[in-house]
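Handout, section B. The chain below has 367 residues.
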Amino acid sequence: MYALITAVFPGENNFASILTRYLGTGTCVLAAEGRSLLTLLLLALRKRNANRSDAVLLPGYTCYSVAAAVVRAGLKCRVYDLNPLTFAPDMASVRSAATPDTLAVVAQHLFGIPTPIDGLREVASSLGAALIEDAAQGLGGRMAGSMLGALGDYGLFSFGRGKPLPLGCGGALLDNRGCMITEGIVTGRKSAGYGGLLKTAALQVLTHPRIYRIMEALPLGLGRTVFDPGFKIAPMPPVMQRLGVRALMYLEVLNAHRRMLAGVYRSILGDGRTRTVSGLDMPVYTRFPVLVNANTIPPHLWRMGVRRMYPKAIIEVPSIRPYLASGSLATPAAARLAVQLITLPTHQGITPDMARRIAREVKELFA
């Protein structure tokens, strides 16, 4: 709340440069949303490519906003499957889906859990395609000592609700290879952005666990994943950038809390249904994922903050199907994740005692 209040007053407005110093790499472009930056990057890549490639290779289980950004850029989606236990790319599926018309390959760190991307890098390089690292859920995470988002040709971050740095809006695009392509990206005319700050302040209150359950039940779209390629592209307002400067100072504390809760969940649920992480990696855990064999979440777990993530695999969403590239392959593991994956809350409002209660309920119900 202190960061929200102080963001109103004049101060440091160099969020982009502070962010690149924190990440230790590249140059940075900001916008009101991460998906806007993905669209602008794809448009720039296609222009440089002289429009010879028109497909983007995506994880089969990912946020629908990624597909919306591809469609907003006038491109086609092609998907690859995942390992349902590790969320790593199924490289056989990747190689089958990779074709000469591939403009870019998207890697992701689902829930801020570091996922190896070397295989995707090799495939992208063989095609002359760009490797875009979707670290929207991974700001502050590390893999073998390297910051998530700094491993691909480009790194993408989001600062929306539920992200590691939950400003309420905003996104960042990193150019990690000095390709200079981001220099020509223009996000539009800036506004002061005080409306966005008020929205963020309201969400701080309304997303209290008890209140949020009521708000989520109303027809406001909270907690829902939708495919909407008609979004507007706008810059990140100065006041939200100032909020980012101040909030970034608390990121490590927020992520440490998430990792602590993940440890509580794992200690009770064990490793059988949870994603193990290398000792060299530092995950974020925007949510804690658990594989269960169930189609629905009982009401009492829903009231405790247990949720699914994306209700369908990309290839199974009717509104996305018309934008799939010809020859798109099935992604059975992604479909399994959509049905069997539940996620447990890790935000600041969850205490260790609450986490233990949630984990015991989940274990008892899905033992």
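Note. Residues 251-269 form the longest helix (19 residues). Compare this with the example in section A.
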